[in-house]
Amino acid sequence: MRHWIWPAVLAVAAATLSAGSPAGADADRSGLPEAIDTILGDPRMEGGVASVVVADAASGDVLYQHRSSGRLMPASNTKMLTAAAAMELLGPGHRFTTDVLADGERRGRVLRGDLYLRGTGDPTTLAEDYDRLAAEIAESGVRRVSGRLIADDTRFDDRRNGDTWSADDESAYYAAQISALSVAPDKDYDTGTVVVEVAPGATAGEKPRVTVTPRTDYVDIDLRATTVAPGGADTLAVERRHGENTITVTGTVPAGGAVTKEWVTVWEPTGYAAAVFRDALAAHGVKVSGPTRTGVATPKDARRLASHDSMPLKDLLVPFMKLSNNMHAESLTKAMGHKATGRRGSWGDGIAAIHGYLKTAGVDPGKLRQVDGSGLSRKDNAAADQYIKLLRSAKGEPWFPDWYASLPVACAPGKFAGGTLRSRMCGTPAALNVRAKTGTLTGASALSGYVKDKSGRELVFSIILNNHLAPSVKALEDAIVVTLASSTREEAVPVMPRSMRGASERDGDVECSWRKPARC
């Protein structure tokens, strides 16, 4: 549990409010602006820049603003724009479909012609889902396909990585390549990745034991690591080589030590999906005689043999938003682009569709820059006042309850409840009160959402902090939101941010849920 310092209520300022304070009701001027200004004056923000707005959720009255229209990197707060647009444009009941089709005739147990695996962008398809599709083919009596296995990923374009995504992140699971066909190795739905587990050998000098989930020959393991004596250094590193599917395991691991588990991206997820499906067919006694080919469209007259539907979008929002899943955001963006234009889904068409929705929500897309759906790009720019408009507009939509439920909850236990806020603001009036989206990149941090003050009044807030050199400024975000939760119309109790003690250089560079296992 985090410990908070609760100083006395600040004296009412007799002088004019600072430039960072808003116009507003006199009652709100008595403490809230001064309290937030004090928090933003923390040394961790020295030389940095902030865009912060707090408003009454019902009336829209602005209670605090600081550089309200200043455009900054919002990091994963971008996902709020994407998720709201997806609920409006695709609909809460939208499901991604993965089909198996054939273009030839069936003769006895032989299917003459090619077998097509056609995806529409499902970021949640598991190996077991491909296994069920294969089982349906086998149960129909087919034992051999005379032609090829065609992986049809043409629902989306062939651009795999987002604008200015860092090359350093190529093998990091939060930056997996985007395809209309892929595989998620677990029920966090980290699509486009495999899970690599490395267990130390029994004695020093032995090679560690490596397993890959799902079991597939699509990736190769180059094992260079060594087991050292108990208590020795653990320097294990697991990374995929650029442009290929060889995963190197290097370093040392002490005998008797814990198993290391890493999520690693694959190169070309379409081929990954095809490989997992081909293996599933073989396991069910169905042999495909021809090779695998990717990127070919299914003929219009092909017959559907089996089909798998994803969970509806309203349910998919939970792993997407709670765990800040970048790949879900990008699949939804391209899916919106396809629906809007009928063309192969692209980032350009998807962003245009999102911006079309934002105009109807009162958000001015001309005052922000969005180049991907997740916020992983450092080109994304938005201001706090635009998020306030979105937060208030969403409340009037029929899909709002599901969108609201997908937001992380402060101090709520469990990754699918508290999400990226599950260890934050515990032991304060904000615990189980705040629902908000987090965002983190190196030098960029954000938190936007909903909170009820001490009198039960619902507030909307957006806090975007950039250009800080401190490893993390999450404590400042938390202090502002706890101050809101502790305040009334008459006074605000400022909560001083916790110290930086214990913060590491890795604490503020990416979303906590982007590190496996999550340490948030």
UniProtKB/TrEMBL annotation:
It is an enzyme of class 3 (hydrolase). Gene3D superfamilies: D-Ala-D-Ala carboxypeptidase C, peptidase S13, DD-peptidase/beta-lactamase superfamily. Its EC number is 3.4.16.4. It holds the Pfam family Peptidase_S13. Residues 1-25 form the signal peptide. Keywords: Carboxypeptidase, Hydrolase, Protease, Signal. Belongs to the peptidase S13 family. This is D-alanyl-D-alanine carboxypeptidase/D-alanyl-D-alanine-endopeptidase. Residues 495-520 are annotated as: Disordered. It comes from Streptomyces anatolicus. Transmembrane segments: none annotated. One of its GO terms (molecular function) is serine-type D-Ala-D-Ala carboxypeptidase activity. InterPro entries: Beta-lactam/transpept-like, Peptidase_S13.
